[in-house]
Design a protein that fits this description.
This protein is α+β, with helices and mostly antiparallel strands. It is built from 19 helices and 12 strands. Among the domains are: about 140 residues, no CATH class; about 130 residues, no CATH class. Helix 2 packs across helix 7 and helix 4 packs across helix 5. The mean pLDDT is about 85.
């Protein structure tokens, strides 16, 4: 008779796997010492890096300006006057090609752009999706050199097996499968040589040229080039120290355990083999996110899976102020028992208490269709200036006017409406701060996940169900923290339905039906010339 494996003690701390290759005691991890100072220093570095200097950083700026400038010039000569759709496609393609030639920093920027469907123009998003899996890996000699420098020993003294071919290769690092000499199967994340130095040079170059691009190329509704560079700097600098990523893994694992969720499993970072440029972690297997048929054949309820992931994500943001900031298919695997192994914690949103409360107010006032309260929450979150005229923004958004069904507008009317609102918001200083940008990016992924895993789900019913969960589970806390009690104030879907051109009495909307409306609106926008 087999003896059952003892339950790992670190499951009391975090949402880890039951079959522990090692156990973690967060208080005794040497690589965690001083990380709060490292994180603070990284944040303090951003304003200086994005400050526009009198002279460009010549060391990197020459190549950057030449490639981006030639891309813009070629677009202006060939596609700019061919109509808005072809013009945007041409510009997007030429920028993507220039970014790929410029290397890791610009490829990373392209990856951020690729996750912004609905925030950035569709042509830009579609083109930059190619940046996700086209990064050429470093030679194995470089990988070996970095591991030896960081861990202080040759590979064969640490690993009994180390795959020469990378499992994945991204802008900052690449990942290799390996086995420790003690027998545990692991994943080893290795930073590219000289990436940190080049990233900082590139940010300075981006910051110098960004103001020159304002108003000269099509941009999204709540972004402009300088703001995009600042967001990029905030995001990528923390990715350069893998100790911060390992700590993100611990913090999100702790939040998931505290919330009582079992849907997400976090890989354990190694107790000792974590440095600024090398991260060794537990290897977790599962179905590819795209393998919907395989999941269902194994008995996985894909409908419940996506809803549970959605709730877990919202709870991390609203209640705990920390959430994984880069959800996409390549970062997760679905295990046969229906749980999600979630990888890559380099991009993680962290909000201090004031911002978390602003985020919570944003979500609750949105659920109550309170636009004034929601705009005030946006302001406190950093999406609007502290002294913004809320009444002016309400007028710019035409909240005081009857909601018009966008599907019944002409292409010219719809495009004009979008342009007018966009310019007004930019005029009021609207922007997307890092937590809000990452939230929007994740919502876009979850929207696509619903389309793939639960296309026939009644979205309105699920929204009410999720609201009910937060009312039951966190209602008392929410009422105490922001004075809004979801237990006594029902969710109001009136504004949501009106914005979709639906009558108040409509009780059901599937994702398939929603997508049909989106396609109709997208076609009208293209026909009308598209937003700036």
């Amino acid at each position: 008779m087999q003896t059952a494996e003892p339950t790992p003690k670190d499951l009391d701390y975090g949402a880890f796997s039951e079959h522990a290759p090692w156990q973690l005691d967060p208080e005794r991890l040497a690589w965690r010492r001083g990380l709060s100072d490292v994180r603070d220093a990284t944040a303090r570095e951003v304003p200086d890096l994005v400050r526009r200097r009198a002279l460009p950083p010549f060391r990197r700026f020459g190549r950057t300006s030449a490639l981006v400038g030639s891309a813009l010039a070629a677009w202006a000569l060939r596609e700019r006057r061919r109509g808005s759709g072809e013009s945007r496609s041409g510009l997007s393609r030429r920028l993507r090609q220039a970014f790929e030639r410029l290397g890791p920093s610009y490829i990373k920027l392209g990856q951020i752009l690729s996750a912004g469907k609905g925030v950035f123009p569709d042509e830009l998003v579609d083109e930059f999706e190619h940046c996700r899996d086209r990064v050429t890996p470093e030679s194995f000699d470089h990988v070996e050199e970095v591991v030896r420098e960081e861990l202080g020993r040759p590979l064969d003294q640490i690993f009994s097996r180390f795959e020469r071919e990378a499992m994945a290769s991204a802008s900052i690092a690449q990942v290799h499968a390996a086995t420790l000499r003690s027998g545990e199967d692991v994943v080893v994340k290795v930073q590219r040589p000289r990436v940190a130095e080049r990233v900082r040079q590139d940010i300075r170059a981006m910051a110098w040229i960004a103001p020159l691009l304002v108003g000269r190329i099509p941009v999204a509704a709540l972004a402009n080039p300088p703001t995009l560079v600042e967001l990029f700097a905030e995001t990528i600098l923390e990715e350069l120290d893998f100790r911060l990523e390992a700590e993100n893994m611990l913090d999100i694992a702790r939040v998931l355990r505290e919330a009582g969720h079992g849907i997400v499993v976090v890989p354990r970072p190694h107790p000792e083999l974590v440095t600024p440029r090398v991260l060794v972690m537990e290897r977790l297997e599962g179905f590819s996110y795209e393998d919907v048929e395989g999941m269902r054949a194994a008995g996985v309820n894909t409908h419940d899976l996506v809803v549970d992931l959605f709730v877990t994500f919202l709870e991390g943001a609203m209640i705990y102020g920390v959430f994984h900031g880069d959800l996409h298919g390549g970062n997760l695997a679905v295990q046969p028992d229906g749980r999600i192994a979630l990888y890559d914690y380099g991009i993680t949103a962290r909000m201090d208490e004031s911002r978390r409360l602003a985020f919570l107010r944003m979500m609750m006032t949105g659920a109550a269709s309170d636009m004034r309260g929601q705009l005030a929450a946006y302001r406190d979150l950093g999406a609007l200036p502290p002294d913004v005229d809320i009444d002016g923004v309400l007028r710019a958004l035409k909240i005081d006017q009857p909601v018009r069904d966008p599907t019944k507008m002409s292409p010219e009317q719809l495009t004009s409406e979008i342009r007018e609102v966009t310019k007004a918001l930019l005029g009021y200083g609207a922007k997307l701060p890092k937590p809000l940008m990452l939230f929007v990016k994740n919502m876009i992924f979850l929207d696509a996940a619903i389309a793939s895993l639960a296309p026939d789900v009644n979205l309105f019913a699920q929204m009410l169900k999720i609201y009910g969960y937060f009312a039951r589970t966190h209602g008392e806390r929410i009422a105490r923290e922001i004075g809004f009690d979801p237990r006594t104030q029902p969710m109001d879907l009136t504004a949501t339905k009106a914005s979709l051109g639906l009558e108040p009495g409509v009780e059901s909307l599937s994702h398939e039906e929603l997508q049909e409306r989106r396609v109709e609106l997208s076609d009208k926008i293209r026909e009308g010339g598209g937003p700036l």
